[in-house]
Amino acid sequence: MPSIAIDMDETIADPITKARSWYYRDYGTIFSEDQLRGKSLSEAVPPEHKGIIHQYLNTPGFFRDLPVYPDAQRVIAELNKKYKVYIVSAAMEFPNSLMDKISWLQDNFPFLTWRQYCLCGDKSLVQTDYMIDDLIRNFQFFKGKPLLFTGPHNIHIEGYDRILNWEDAAARLL
Amino acid sequence: MPSIAIDMDETIADPITKARSWYYRDYGTIFSEDQLRGKSLSEAVPPEHKGIIHQYLNTPGFFRDLPVYPDAQRVIAELNKKYKVYIVSAAMEFPNSLMDKISWLQDNFPFLTWRQYCLCGDKSLVQTDYMIDDLIRNFQFFKGKPLLFTGPHNIHIEGYDRILNWEDAAARLL
């Protein structure tokens, strides 16, 4: 059975909507889709506010109730029958997110077990047959087949096979 | 730079001494070295007490202040100069251990960073050049060089290269 490592943030979970709304609450400005094109949220805010985004992401509860990406549950339930599925999140930078991420997975992907979770600092030790991720830095040492999950921040990157959304993942992998 | 995945429990951290003393506190019996030979702690207790050991390990704080194995700090600090070191713990079965394990690593291995931590359910997705672990089940899908860290529970297992202690690891790997 081939194995597949699936990322969390901006692949199955949406932290951007919440971070934008918290930033609006605190600073009265909202990011347009345009400002986020080709950039991470930390890169889109003024340099002096970079630490604010970091603070948001390390706030207990931030990751607890994020929206799930459309079709992710249905498609990953199907993938789980044909692949060894792992959910791999480079979450260690935000230790307060770890328990929230586990609870979120238990709530939203109840067909996966704790054996399939991996919370790490750096994905360079993860080797599976496929990796679905929105950040190409996670592919740097990856020997399997990388699949770049499309988002506004990676729209300009070339040279990778892409997955456009979970419907597309189903068409590619099922 | 070659990479090396190093286990936590019964490799760099000792959870057995504490589990034994808690069991003594609760049931008035202490395990002899002999009873633990060739067995995990869960296997050494009467079957009806298996759940008790699980409860101990999932108690917040249990992993927070475990003793460090002799020479582990000094030798891993040296390994960290010559290898990409990762600390990999299949800790996901005990979600309450996760924060304790991170704090313990920060306290006892301050020369490692969060980028080097990996807390997972199953080590089958971890591929490094070497893996030091006391449980052969973690080598099942491992393609690098496994090094079995000797402990009373694995004393009867044959067919693996062993590391007897951290002094021996230094001799083998440095």
From TrEMBL, chains A, B:
Give the GO biological process terms: pyrimidine deoxyribonucleotide catabolic process
| Protein family | Belongs to the 5'(3')-deoxyribonucleotidase family.
This chain belongs to the protein called 5'(3')-deoxyribonucleotidase
List, from the UniProt record, the residues annotated as the active site of this protein: 7, 9
Q: Which Gene3D superfamilies match?
A: Deoxyribonucleotidase, domain 2 (1.10.40.40), HAD superfamily/HAD-like (3.40.50.1000)
Against InterPro entries, the record matches this protein to: 5'(3')-deoxyribonucleotidase, HAD-like_sf, HAD_sf
Pfam families the UniProt entry points to: NT5C
Q: Which terms in the Gene Ontology molecular function aspect does this entry carry?
A: 5'-nucleotidase activity
Organism taxonomic ancestry: Bacteria, Pseudomonadati, Bacteroidota, Chitinophagia, Chitinophagales
